Amino acid sequence: MEEARTTRSYDSEFCGSLPIHLINVVMPYGALIVFDKETLKVLQTSANIEKSTGTEAPDLIGISITEFLSAESVDIIGQKIAAGFTDRTPFRLSVDVTDYLAILHIKDTYCLLEINYDSEEEATTNTYVDVYQELKSAISSIESSSGTIEAAKITAQVLKAASGFDKVMIYQFDNEWNGHVLAEESEPDMESYLGFTFPASDIPKQARDLYLKNSYRFIPDRNYEPIKIYPVLNPDTQSFIDLSDCNVRGVSAVHIEYLKNMNVVASMSTRIIKDNKLWGLIACHHKTA
Fold it and tell me: Which CATH superfamily includes the segment(s) 126-224+251-286?
C-alpha cells in the first residue's frame, strides 16, 4: 500500500490541468448574459437567450438590459452593484411577462446573469416552509448522532428521501484527496460504492477548488446539447469568460465519460466544509434525466 502511495500522481498531471472553468458553453436548462457593470450593455450571451428575450444572441449584443428586463429586476441589479456585492446573489428575475429564478455574479468590470429556464413554477411559489418542516427533524437527528459515520448515514437517508435521487453518497477526502465513501443510500438496482475509495484524479484539484467558490454542482442530463457563448471572446478581457462559479457552466468531456461509466445520467454534488477547507462531498446520482 505504501508503494502505491509513492507512485506518480495523475491528479495534477492530466485531469488537474484541464481548464474546466473556461469551457465556454452552458447547459440548456439555463441561459447566461454577460453585461458591462457601468453601462449595463450586453457583452456576451448564450445562444439560447432568445427563449426568454425573444431576441437572438447576436442582436442582443450592445443592448442595455433595461431594454428587456423588468424595471424591478433592473432596480435589484443596480442596488446590488451599488452596494458592492461580490457574493453570488439569487433573486426573482422578470423577463417580459415570465418570472425565473436567477443568479447575479458581480465582477470587477462586468456582471454575469444566470437564468434558470426550469424555474418558472418555483419562481411563483414559496416552498421554503415545506422543505424546512421536512428537514427539521433530520437536522436534530444529525446533531445528536454519536459520530461521523452515523451522521453520514442519517444525512444520506434523509437527502435521498427528500431529493428523489436514486443514490446519495457521503464521502470524505483523505490527505491525498482520495475520496472514501462513508455512507450510502440507494435503489436496489444501483451498484454500491459503500466503503469504496475513489482516486484523487476523479475530482482533480481545479474541480475541488471550484467547490470552494460554488457550494454545489448540478447536472440534470449528461446527454445535454452544449449551448455556445456568443461572441466567443469576452470583449472586456479578450479571453474566454470565466464560468468558475456559474451553475449553468457546461460539463467537461472527461466528467461526462465518468458519469457514463457509473451509469449515471443526472447528478448533483454538494460540498462539505470543515475549518474553511473542503472536507468531503455529498454526491447524488440518478439513472434518468
Answer: GAF domain (3.30.450.40)
